[in-house]
Amino acid sequence: MAAGDAPGFEIFRARDAQDYAAGGPMETAPMTAAEAAGMAGLMQHGMMDGGAVKLLYARPGMSLTYCWFKSGYPLPRHSHSADCLYFIVSGSLRIGTEELGPGDGFFLGTDVPYSYVPGENGVEVMEFRTSDKFDFKALANNRAYWDKALANLLAAKVKWPEETAPPSGMQIA
User: Fold this and answer.
1) How many domains is the chain built from?
2) Contact by Cβ (8 Å): 142, 77
3) Residue 73 burial (C-beta neighbours within 10 Å; 0-12, 13-18, 19+)
4) Distance CA 170, CA 119 (A)
């Protein structure tokens, strides 16, 4: 197959999913000192215990990611360097003033800032991107934002030990 030719047919399997924590398609863009300190504080206090992000499929110009975020997960305000279509498999989330549930979704263009908060049972989201490589840009350059995010994390993670499986029961490797 010549470079740039799309395959006519491919199968991917959940058991072969790549955990973003082990290296994936997303790279962190440079951060301000406040953003770096804020993200470090969230990581230090267990933010990564509140979710799983797995790359299911990628090829040049396309990727599919599965995310499970537990209740109240403090997803920081950020953007990505690729368009993305989000589809909610199960659970719920609040984005802005909108409450979304199974079968709902939203589209975000390249570099559009966003954040959402998973509902009381968490949320499972499929992310369809127009790229196989993209960045994560933290977008909150003030300490007050990060202090609130940390307080939200500490309040939310109290329930996380009880949330041992995603709302759908689907297990992605």
Assistant:
1) 1
2) no
3) buried
4) 18
Residue 1 lies in a domain: no
In a domain, 18, yes or no: yes
Residue pair 72/42 in contact (Cβ under 8 Å)? The answer is no
**Is the sign of the CA dihedral 13, 23, 130, 108 positive or negative?**
positive
Task: Return the H-helix or E-strand segment holding 99.
Answer: strand 98-100
For residue 98, list its beta bridge partners: 95
Residue 122 belongs to a domain with what CATH number? 2.60.120.10
In whole angstroms, what is the distance from residue 83 CA to residue 172 CA?
24
Rounded to the nearest angstrom, the gap between the alpha carbon of residue 133 and the centroid of all alpha carbons in its chain is 14
pLDDT at residue 91 tops 80: yes
Measured distance CA(162)–CA(70) in Å, rounded: 10
Q: What is the DSSP letter of 114?
A: B
Contact at 8 Å (CB) between 156 and 72?
yes
Domain ranges, residue 154: 14-162
pLDDT band at 1 (very low <50, low <70, confident <90, very high): very low
Distance CA 132, CA 62 (A): 5
Of the two residues 173 and 97, the one the predictor is more confident about is 97
